[in-house]
Specification:
The complex is a heterodimer.
Chain A: H1 2-5, H2 8-15, H3 27-31, E1 47-53, E2 59-65, H4 67-71, E3 75-79, H5 81-84, E4 91-93, E5 99-101, E6 107-108, E7 114-120, H6 123-132, E8 134-139, H7 146-151, E9 180-187, H8 189-198, E10 201-212, E11 221-227, E12 232-237, H9 242-253, E13 260-263, H10 279-291, E14 295-298, H11 301-307, E15 310-322, E16 328-340, E17 367-376, E18 382-384, H12 392-410, H13 414-421, E19 430-431, E20 437-438, H14 443-454, H15 456-471, E21 477-487, E22 499-500, E23 503-504, E24 507-513, E25 519-523, H16 532-544, E26 551-555, H17 572-599, E27 606-609, E28 612-615, E29 618-624, H18 625-634, E30 645-650, E31 659-669, E32 675-685, H19 692-711, E33 743-746, H20 764-781, H21 795-804
Parallel strand pairs in A: 1-14, 12-13, 15-18, 16-17, 25-26, 32-33
Antiparallel strand pairs in A: 1-7, 2-6, 2-8, 3-7, 4-5, 9-17, 10-15, 11-12, 11-14, 15-16, 19-20, 21-31, 22-23, 24-25, 24-30, 27-28, 28-29, 31-32
Helix pairs in contact in A: 12-20, 14-15, 16-17, 17-18, 19-20
Chain B: E1 5-11, E2 14-20, H1 26-33, E3 52-55, E4 58-61, E5 74-76, H2 89-96, H3 106-119, H4 125-131, H5 143-163
Classes of the chains: A alpha+beta, B alpha+beta.
Chain lengths: 809, 164
């Protein structure tokens, strides 16, 4: 038999299990133009819907006249709030406990807001119809600044003010002002104030983490098809959480959940943009019900950047205290969070500011306090986690900037300051001052490896020489060394504290082994480029001993996949990956009984070995998993049901805490403001590594999105609430020309509570990358008195920094 | 709306003939009329390159060209570059070197790369980065795209040498 002559190493290699750089099974279709994205879907008689959008950021809608639009050949219907109101669908709940207008109900609150939905035979007819919908607006004062908003008499959300002028509580407690959404606190206020008052040194800084956007290359969209004969609604779309969308659609439409099928086909990148529920989905469903035909809605790029899911927009003020020697004693953080016209943040329900309370970072800070005030303005709703777990990018940027500012205050080296404050390896599991229990870490080892690899001391010496040369007029280029050490908090999450709209954030995997020894596994998550079909098969291959190439992974169809909360916040591997391993172990447990029966020994007398069960002490007596799979279907085994299937719903006991150490070396031309990235070193510790090739790819991509955010990408508004960055002409997406090569490295600190020790990696490089690029820019100017400048560090802003510091004199 | 125009195209070797409004964009023709959905729409302003096709030997962004402007042209899309049994070296190299993730930019990226390697069969990394700068990718950070194109170039040059 072939198996007998194969070495154990060959058998391991044959599985293509965990730890190998298995090539992706997804790539065949994508490289041949055979992907199946939502806009590729065509159904008989399918119509196309598109929005009339508000040109104003704040206005009353006086009237809407659809008469002329309806005369356009090919236009079948124009929906307005008045049409949706009888169905109770003119507003919809947001993921953050607020509600949002589906179509403008008397007023608009941001530029680009959905006012009417034109349904036509094709895109051209829809566009013609949109031109002819006459909307009369009465302009209102516009507020784009959250601080001004909290002082203004202008009421943005009249629906949230009682008739007597009183302010009912919001979803997250009392509100201080009619434009205030919530106050959220973590930690101890008074003790923190006391520590700060008594400290040797206190560094204070205010920073603005600008508004930006995930901007996946494929925009959001859907196709709704109501089958009136059978009473079934099918909704295809770019959904990062298809099951949650099904439940939301059922709750707001009244259609029973078993009559709704949600399908996420191939998704062209998500990065958080495709988590939320958008008016386009609701309008497409209604339009399909009204017309009896399938209706497609696809955003154009401008719709996407202007309306669906911005990220960040946090005004952060920090105070950090330390002893003279640099030991941090306390941290205070206040955030004014601009949520736009509706609070549509995609966070677990109990966390209106996401996991901002991870803002003590990787440091042993005994006392801390965080307060976040959410505020309405006349900007688009959203507040999604753009390639990060909920608000973790903001938290890590905050602490990594505060560390740098403290280093300036103490006149200390920022690498050394980090080192003396890291949580020590022996302190894990570590309970932070703001509440989280970090599962594992070895920060000193990672930091030392990073600094040694880049020759940190050599770089500092070179930088000092550069400063001398600059002062002597020998060069016009400064050198910046950007450091960041980050701890992510991902894998939301334990049902005890994480839910979205009451849905616990567990995840799931269901496995069916076929008689001939191949398998299909279905998960509650959905890949948007992460390569789940490749990596989850690798987890299973190692767990159940069948080759990854014989395992199909399927996601995204709610009629077939087990319930799960989807893919975002780096939760797929920590939660669904764990479910996969656990379901695999159930398969293995049953396989063990079958093997023992076939080998005529007791269950405990066989043990699992790569791809088989062997009799302990007699390795020549074995049954391969393939043998066992067949036996499960062709033999009557006493006391064992036929078949070989398992399902696991995994509620993680804790989050996972990946971490990493990044160093960026940058040259900056003070006369042009152009930064040139000379070197970028990224060490990531994501626990057990499933597929090193894919991890590396995720790191490259996350760093590039970090580069974009740090160096130029922004959603900017003028005072009238006009979006100034609504196309890719103005919204910075780096090209191959602007992006450096990255050096990747790793350490491995497995998660102690995860079945395979994996922690998730897709978002770490973004979380750690943004402060690293920003710190590099700021560090270049530190010798000339720079303390903090806000991102994005585009050429103009860098030039301005140089100018303010007198470097052009 | 307006008088339709008589359009003739050759797409991936197949002759197509139809009437179209003057305002019909080529990407619309390909995706909606001819059901060629490899080229994607990403920006509609010529920035992202997801819609890249080859027309008369040049890389063209199909989202900002009227089909009338392409009248009479020979057009190649990703669907015409290789077949499941005979993949183009770029298609193989992108898989081999993890040059893609979500796959949305990939058809345009590979289509553009075929032209780049025709124009410059042995490009340096800098030339690849410059030559591919009209095609945006949000997932990969380009490093593995550059690697894939380099590997495909080497493969194609070796094959050419062997044939000579």
């Amino acid at each position: 038999m072939k198996d007998e002559i194969e070495s154990r190493d060959d058998r391991v290699a044959n599985l293509k299990g965990m730890g190998c750089s298995r090539k992706r099974v997804e790539d065949a279709r994508f490289t041949q133009g055979k992907g199946n994205y939502v806009d590729d879907l065509k159904l008989d008689g399918m119509l196309f819907g598109d929005f009339v959008r508000s040109p104003y950021a704040h206005a009353r809608v006086v009237s809407i006249n659809t008469e002329e639009a309806l005369k356009v050949p090919g236009v079948l219907a124009v929906l307005t709030a008045a049409d949706l109101e009888p169905l109770g669908l003119h507003w919809m709940p947001t993921l953050a406990g607020d509600k949002q207008m589906v179509l403008a109900d008397g007023k608009v609150l941001f530029q680009g807001q959905e006012v009417a939905f034109v349904v036509a035979e094709d895109r051209y007819a829809a566009a013609d119809g949109i031109e002819l919908v006459e909307v009369e607006y009465d302009e209102l004062p516009v507020i784009v600044d959250p601080f001004e908003s909290l002082k203004s008499d202008v009421v943005l959300r009249e629906d949230l003010v009682a008739e007597d002028g009183g302010l009912p509580d919001g979803a997250h407690g009392p509100r201080k002002h009619h434009n205030h959404i919530f106050t959220w606190e973590a930690g101890d206020k008074e003790p923190t104030e006391q520590v700060l008052a008594e400290a040797d040194v206190v560094a204070t800084e205010t920073m603005y983490y600008h508004r930006t956007h995930p901007c996946p290359l494929e925009t959001c969209g859907c196709v709704a098809s109501m089958d009136k004969v059978n009473g079934k609604l099918t909704l295809w779309g770019t959904f990062q959480a298809p099951h949650a969308i099904r439940t939301v659609v059922s709750l707001i439409s009244g259609i029973e959940e078993h009559n709704i099928r949600v399908i996420s086909p191939d998704i062209g990148g998500g990065f958080g943009n495709k988590v939320g529920a958008y008016p386009g989905y609701v309008c497409s469903v209604v339009a399909s019900i009204v017309t009896g035909k399938p209706v497609k809605w696809i955003e154009d790029r401008m719709d996407n950047l202007m309306t669906t899911a911005f990220a960040r927009d946090y005004h952060m003020t920090g105070r950090i205290s330390a002893t003279k020697e640099g030991k941090i004693t306390g941290l205070h953080c206040h955030v004014t969070a601009d949520h736009g016209g509706f609070d549509a943040c995609a966070d677990p329900t109990k966390f209106p500011a996401g996991f901002m309370n991870i803002c003590t970072g990787s440091y042993d800070i005994p006392t801390a306090y965080l307060e976040v005030d959410g505020v309405y303005t006349n900007k688009a709703p959203g507040g999604v986690s753009y390639r990060c777990s909920f608000r973790v990018t903001e938290a890590v940027y905050f602490i990594e900037r505060m560390i740098e500012v403290l280093a300036i205050e103490l006149n200390m080296d920022a690498a050394e300051l980090r080192r003396i404050n890291f949580i020590k390896k022996e302190q894990f599991p570590y309970t932070a001052a703001l509440g989280w229990e970090y599962d594992s870490g070895d920060y000193h080892t990672a930091w030392d490896k990073a600094l040694k690899t880049v020759d940190y001391d050599g770089l500092r010496a070179e930088q000092a020489q550069r400063v001398e040369d600059f002062k002597a007029g020998k060069t016009r280029k400064l050198m910046g060394i950007g450091l960041s050490f980050f701890t992510e908090i991902v894998g939301a999450g334990p049902v005890k504290n994480c839910d979205i709209l009451g849905l616990g954030m567990f995840d799931s995997c269901e496995i069916r082994i076929h008689p001939t020894g191949s398998a299909i596994a279905r998960l509650g998550t959905i890949s948007q480029g992460q390569g789940h079909a490749t990596t989850f098969a690798q987890i299973l291959a190692s767990e159940i001993g069948l080759p990854a190439d014989s395992i199909t992974i399927e996601e995204g169809d709610t009629d077939t996949a087990p319930y799960g909360l989807g893919t975002y916040g780096s939760r797929s591997t920590p939660v669904a990956g764990a479910a996969t391993a656990m379901a695999g172990r159930k398969i293995r447990a049953k396989a063990q009984m079958i093997a023992a029966y076939l080998l005529e020994v007791h269950d405990n007398d066989v043990e699992f070995d790569v791809d088989r069960f062997v009799v302990k002490g007699a390795p020549e007596r074995f049954k391969t998993m393939k043998d066992i799979a067949f036996a499960a279907y062709n033999q009557a085994i006493p006391g064992i049901e036929p078949g070989l299937e398992a399902v696991s719903y995994y509620d993680p006991p804790n989050m996972t805490y990946p971490f990493g150490a990044y160093v960026c070396v940058m040259d900056i031309d003070v006369d042009t403001g152009v930064p040139e990235i000379r070197r970028f070193y990224a060490l990531d510790d994501c626990g057990t590594r499933i597929n090193p090739m894919i991890i590396e790819g995720q790191v490259h991509g996350g760093l590039t999105e970090a580069l974009a955010v740090a160096l130029g990408q922004e959603i900017a508004y003028d005072d009238m609430g006009n979006v100034k960055t609504g196309t890719l002409m103005d919204f910075f997406l780096p090209t191959a020309w602007e992006v450096p090569n990255y050096e990747t490295d790793f350490t491995v600190t497995p998660s102690p509570h995860h079945p395979i020790g994996a922690k998730g990696v897709g978002e770490s490089p973004h979380v750690g990358g943004v402060p690293c690029f920003s710190n590099a820019v700021q560090d270049a100017f530190r010798p000339f008195g720079n303390r903090h400048t806000n991102m994005p560090h585009d050429h103009w802003r860098i030039w301005q920094t140089a100018n303010k510091l007198g470097l052009h004199d | 709306m307006s008088t339709k125009m008589h359009i003739k195209l050759t797409v991936n070797g197949k002759n197509e003939e139809f009437l179209a409004e003057p305002r019909e964009l080529l990407i619309y023709t390909l995706r909606e009329r001819l059901n060629i959905t490899g080229p994607h729409i990403g920006c509609e302003t010529s920035h992202c390159g997801a819609c890249t096709v080859t027309i008369g030997g040049k890389s063209v962004k199909a989202c900002t060209m009227f089909v009338a402007q392409a009248n009479g042209a020979e057009i190649t899309t990703i669907e015409g570059i290789g077949s499941p049994d005979d993949l183009h070296p770029l298609q193989t190299a992108f898989k081999e070197h993890h040059g893609l993730q979500c796959g949305y930019c990939t058809p345009g990226m590979i289509t553009r790369a075929t032209k780049l390697l025709e124009e410059n069969p042995d490009p340096t990394e800098e030339e690849i980065r410059f030559g591919m700068a009209g095609n945006l990718c949000r997932c990969t950070g380009y490093q593995n795209i550059v690697k894939s194109i380099k590997a495909a170039a080497a493969e194609m040059n070796a094959a050419k040498e062997a044939a000579e």
